[in-house]
Amino acid sequence: MKKFIAIALACLMMMGMLAGCAGSSNDLGLCEDGKLIMATNAAFPPYEYKEGNSFKGIDVEIAEAIAKKLGLELVIEDVEFGAVLSGVSEGKYDVGLAGITVTEDRKKTMDFSDTYATGIQVIIVNDGSSIASLDDLFIFNDDGDPTGLKNESIRVGVQENTTGDIYSSSAVSSWGFNDLNDDESIKTDRVVRFKTGADAVAALKAGNVDCVIIDNEPAKSFVEVNEGIHILDGDNEYAVEDYAICVKKGNSELLSKINAALAELKADGTIDGIIEKYIPSKG
Questions:
Q1: Residues 202/196, Cβ–Cβ less than 8 Å
Q2: Which of 48, 55, 93, 209 is in Cβ range 3.0-4.6 Å of 39 for a Cys bridge?
Q3: Count of Cβ atoms closer than 10 Å to residue 227 Cβ
Q4: Residue 82 in 3-state DSSP?
Q5: What is the pLDDT along the chain (283 residues), one digit of tens a residue?
Q6: Who's near 257: CB < 8 A, 6+ residues apart?
Q7: How far apart, in Å, are the Cα atoms of 91 and each of 42, 86, 94, 251?
Q8: What gap in Å lies between CA 210 and CA 131, rounded to an integer?
Q9: Is 197 exposed, middle or buried (0-12, 13-18, 19+ CB in 10 A)?
Q10: DSSP strand E in 110-251: where?
Q11: Under 8 Å CB-to-CB from 186, ≥6 apart: which residues?
Q12: Are 113 and 255 in contact (CB under 8 A)?
């Protein structure tokens, strides 16, 4: 009987381990007591990237500062961007920091902290491209709204599951590139999705897509290390959005602590200092 009980207890312990955060009973609902497990996609400089085996970037340093405020050890898990979102919503990770934009759809499955940065979606093209502005992509009405594409054979590269993907995949009337059916399913798919922004840029250079839509700061990093490509100049911003930290929906205690830490880090200049370190202001 004792042997049976011991085996049963061992099985229960194993099930608890496999359940991940869902089985945690600590006050903040953390995956593991004393640790803040952060999911990211470390291919998005300057927000998150790797140098050797070390994680670097704005999101990494902000997460480190928050973990220190909360008295927790930061543990970083590098996964695909889509897995960051699904992993947090399923309780596999405590938080997600990966240049994550707050959208209404995402708010249905996870909760978001206060905003800590602003992102801008921009368009990268090859040098010599016939695309020099948004006017070369879209037909606009007198109100300045897009009503169609100038070239219906256009192909746009994006990192899958990012807002660049979401915006590009919507109807042209919403500044997307796809034709949609009445039920909003895709009728004509002109968007090519890649695992990382770097893969999308490589496809652009190879001539497999006509442009890439991605956040402005990563775009600058990709342009800096890749000859023959550039970001469209002038008033050609594709979208402006807010970055925030995502947590499992309903984990109000952890969210409250994160927002309190963010407020302190904003007030004492820590966040501005981190952003300035990676994105120096123009002087």
A1: no
A2: 93
A3: 8
A4: helix
A5: 434 334 443 444 444 444 445 444 468 999 999 999 999 999 889 999 999 999 999 999 999 999 999 999 999 999 999 999 999 999 999 999 999 989 888 999 999 999 998 888 899 999 999 999 999 999 999 988 888 999 999 999 999 988 889 889 988 888 899 998 988 899 999 999 999 999 999 999 999 999 999 988 889 999 999 999 999 987 666 777 889 999 999 999 999 999 999 999 999 999 999 998 988 876 4
A6: 28, 70
A7: 20, 9, 7, 10
A8: 8
A9: buried
A10: 110-112, 117-126, 138-140, 146-149, 156-159, 179-180, 186-188, 191-194, 211-215, 229-231, 239-243, 246-248
A11: 169, 178, 179, 180
A12: yes
Query: How many residues make up the chain in this entry?
Result: 283
